[in-house]
């Protein structure tokens, strides 16, 4: 009975994850659309692979710490739903954290219970790193590769990490858009024993 009721509610069009993702994609612009749709491309494009990369006016990023991904970006189905609005990179407390691109410090301080540094870049792009302690202040200029702080103890990863977030025009996007893009998925044949 419960299963039938659940199917009935979902079948009646209550929450459709595909529609929610499509709605979120429509709020994004430019090449961010390709990332959100897994390479489906923005409306009117001929080759989805052409859209993978930074938005117009933005530049490619450098890794803030060694590129060892511990947790990928997970777009939420709606703006206020749960998700993972960034990527986690393995790091240890005390490791140096570097600016991903030229920009100006937008924020350096504590959010909730962890230190955060946000940098505004060209193309209405904002990067943020946490848990990162920094001597910088709002308005300080930074160049790509400059040390902007050190990994702090705590954060949301067991064993330490740096959370790297990206926003374009105020909307969260995958930082991988700026770190070499998101390669197309390639299906490999299975081997039968």
From TrEMBL:
<dbReference type="InterPro" id="IPR011055">
    <property type="entry name" value="Dup_hybrid_motif"/>
</dbReference>
<dbReference type="InterPro" id="IPR050570">
    <property type="entry name" value="Cell_wall_metabolism_enzyme"/>
</dbReference>
<feature type="region of interest" description="Disordered">
    <location>
        <begin position="35"/>
        <end position="56"/>
    </location>
</feature>
<dbReference type="InterPro" id="IPR016047">
    <property type="entry name" value="M23ase_b-sheet_dom"/>
</dbReference>
<feature type="domain" description="M23ase beta-sheet core">
    <location>
        <begin position="83"/>
        <end position="175"/>
    </location>
</feature>
<protein>
    <submittedName>
        <fullName>Peptidase M23-like protein</fullName>
    </submittedName>
</protein>
<feature type="compositionally biased region" description="Low complexity">
    <location>
        <begin position="35"/>
        <end position="47"/>
    </location>
</feature>
<keyword id="KW-0732">Signal</keyword>
<dbReference type="GO" id="GO:0004222">
    <property type="term" value="F:metalloendopeptidase activity"/>
</dbReference>
<dbReference type="Pfam" id="PF01551">
    <property type="entry name" value="Peptidase_M23"/>
</dbReference>
<feature type="signal peptide">
    <location>
        <begin position="1"/>
        <end position="20"/>
    </location>
</feature>
């Amino acid at each position: 009975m419960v299963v039938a009721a659940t199917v009935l509610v979902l079948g009646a069009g209550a929450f459709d994850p595909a529609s929610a993702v499509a709605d979120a994609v429509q709020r994004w612009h430019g090449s961010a659309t390709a990332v959100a749709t897994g390479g489906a491309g923005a409306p009117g494009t001929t080759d989805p692979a052409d859209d993978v990369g930074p938005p117009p006016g933005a530049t490619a990023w450098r890794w803030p710490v060694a590129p060892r991904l511990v947790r990928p970006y997970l777009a939420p189905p709606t703006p206020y739903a749960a998700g993972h609005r960034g990527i986690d990179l393995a790091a240890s407390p005390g490791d140096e954290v570097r600016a991903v691109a030229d920009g100006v410090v937008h924020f350096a301080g504590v959010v909730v219970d962890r230190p955060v540094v946000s940098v505004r870049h060209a193309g209405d792009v904002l990067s943020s790193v946490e848990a990162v302690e920094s001597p910088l202040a709002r308005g300080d200029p930074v160049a790509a590769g400059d040390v902007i702080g050190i990994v702090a103890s705590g954060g949301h990863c067991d064993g330490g990490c740096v959370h790297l977030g990206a926003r374009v025009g105020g909307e969260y996007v995958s930082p991988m858009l700026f770190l070499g893009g998101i390669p197309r998925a390639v299906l490999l044949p299975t081997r039968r024993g």
